[in-house]
């Protein structure tokens, strides 16, 4: 039996702790915040009309079988803890120009039919051709890449790729290039581009292999957890406690002791004595681990782009807007938005708030999260990271956040959804807030941007492991849970 310390009680940390405790290890989790969940955050606002509850992180659960496997591995059933509701539409896409909307769903044939009805038979045929390619990418990657440790280009090269798989994955091609090759309708290209941003990446630079992201969502479905996605953190915490894991919130790990090339434990803020450990699992951003938690700063072995961030409005809205659970409102053009969000320091282009951004609105039809006759709106706009460098924006600059919030509400009004006269309240969350609240450098949502090669799960010292969205296999709830599975499998059960 190993003494294992987990740094961070996000989904990755809790999932790893539960798996390890279920196999006989002694596990303690330290979390700097006062509650668990990490980026899977929640916020409640009390008003005279009643309480509004918002998910401030993920708003969609995909690949639910990953979580069924997780709970079964810890001796439980997912349905005993969570109430999953399938979504149709998964996302409603509203395009510029006032044309038809497009509702995505988890039936590929039905989605192709919806594309045909909205955009014509050629567009539907284009999508089906892309879909066949996406299936090959998914089949080539989900078992050999997403469920195994991958820490270097050599690890990827060592996989038994078939020639057809390599042709589908198209190393060197971008997601934008893939869309332009296969899709003639600009609205479908816009839709495909957007999946790169779901992994924190610029579609003009993101690998074509990210076509597996829409494939997973639109094949296996998108799900809402009644009561909010934050109930997943509650369920994982319960599993951990039932398995004997010690979870200490409000406790900051300031250093990982790793003298002599292996871990010995961790140091806590305000505590003189170190906490001994045979194994340390860090559910912190990989950059934070390498730069701030090790005895001496180290360079990440994998050179990866930092993820984009998000600018968020939490709105209490009176009345019924008739929106789908998820709605995406696209701008007239996306390249100007991507230039603003990502910047191009090499070309002298500074990051800035996008003037005409894509706007994501989540409105859960769930009485548990809003008073009768009202809606709780989570509004997200892709944004540059917080900071002062050319590729970032100083979101703490006086007046900027409120002015940009006004702009987002104006944009929604321009796109046919004006709620400015129905607001009970609005709260603003900037990348600077995520930077401070979740220890996410710059407020980067996924830590590192989408790609096949991310920081490895195996750390630079023996006994040190990394889980979470900034590490392999990537961001998003199922990928984070898979990182926990990879690490738990590599550590092995206590009785080995």
UniProtKB/TrEMBL annotation:
Keywords: Carotenoid biosynthesis, Oxidoreductase. Pfam families: Amino_oxidase. GO terms for molecular function: oxidoreductase activity. This is Phytoene desaturase. Residues 12-290 form the Amine oxidase domain. Belongs to the carotenoid/retinoid oxidoreductase family. The keyword Oxidoreductase applies. Pathway: Carotenoid biosynthesis. GO terms for biological process: carotenoid biosynthetic process.
């Amino acid at each position: 039996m190993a003494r294992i310390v987990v740094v961070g009680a996000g989904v990755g940390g809790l999932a790893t702790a539960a798996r390890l405790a279920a196999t006989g290890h002694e596990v303690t989790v330290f979390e700097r915040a006062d509650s668990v969940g990490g980026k899977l955050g929640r916020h409640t606002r009390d008003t005279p009309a009643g309480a509004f509850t918002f998910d401030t992180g993920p708003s969609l659960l995909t690949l639910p079988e990953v979580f069924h496997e997780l709970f079964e591995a810890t001796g439980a059933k997912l349905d005993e803890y969570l109430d999953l509701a399938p979504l149709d539409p998964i996302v409603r896409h509203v395009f510029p120009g006032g044309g038809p909307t497009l509702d995505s769903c988890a039936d590929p044939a039905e989605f192709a039919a919806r594309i045909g009805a909205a955009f014509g038979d050629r567009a539907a045929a284009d999508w089906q051709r892309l879909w066949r390619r996406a299936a090959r990418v998914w089949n080539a990657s989900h078992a050999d890449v997403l469920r195994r440790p991958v820490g270097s280009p050599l690890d990827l090269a060592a996989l038994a790729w078939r020639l057809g798989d390599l042709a589908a994955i198209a190393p060197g091609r971008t997601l934008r290039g893939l869309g332009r090759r296969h899709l003639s309708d600009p609205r479908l290209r816009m839709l495909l581009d957007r999946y790169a941003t779901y992994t924190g990446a610029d579609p003009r630079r993101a690998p074509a292999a990210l076509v597996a992201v829409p494939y997973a969502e639109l094949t296996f479905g998108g799900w809402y957890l009644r009561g909010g996605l934050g109930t997943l953190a509650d369920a994982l915490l319960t599993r951990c406690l039932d398995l004997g894991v010690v979870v200490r919130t409000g406790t900051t790990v300031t250093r990982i002791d790793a003298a002599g090339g292996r871990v010995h434990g961790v140091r806590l803020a305000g505590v003189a004595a170190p906490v001994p450990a045979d194994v340390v699992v860090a559910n912190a951003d990989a950059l934070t681990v390498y730069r701030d938690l090790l005895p001496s700063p180290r360079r990440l072995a994998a050179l990866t782009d930092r993820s984009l961030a998000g600018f968020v409005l939490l709105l209490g809205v009176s009345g019924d807007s008739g929106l789908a659970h998820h709605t995406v409102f696209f701008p007239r053009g996306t390249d100007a938005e991507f230039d603003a969000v990502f910047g191009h320091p090499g070309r002298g282009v500074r990051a800035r708030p996008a003037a005409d951004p894509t706007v994501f609105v989540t409105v859960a039809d769930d009485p548990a999260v809003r008073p009768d006759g009202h809606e709780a709106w989570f509004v997200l706009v892709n944004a540059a990271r917080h900071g002062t460098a050319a590729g970032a924006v100083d979101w703490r600059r006086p007046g900027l956040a409120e002015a940009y919030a006004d702009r987002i509400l104006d944009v929604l009004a321009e796109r046919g959804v004006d709620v400015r006269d129905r607001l009970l309240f609005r709260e603003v969350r900037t990348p600077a807030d995520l930077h401070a609240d979740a220890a996410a450098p710059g407020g980067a949502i996924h830590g590192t941007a989408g790609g096949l090669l991310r920081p490895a799960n195996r750390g630079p010292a023996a006994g040190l492991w990394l889980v979470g969205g900034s590490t392999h296999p990537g961001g998003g709830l199922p990928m984070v849970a898979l990182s926990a599975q990879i690490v738990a499998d590599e550590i092995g059960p206590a009785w080995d």
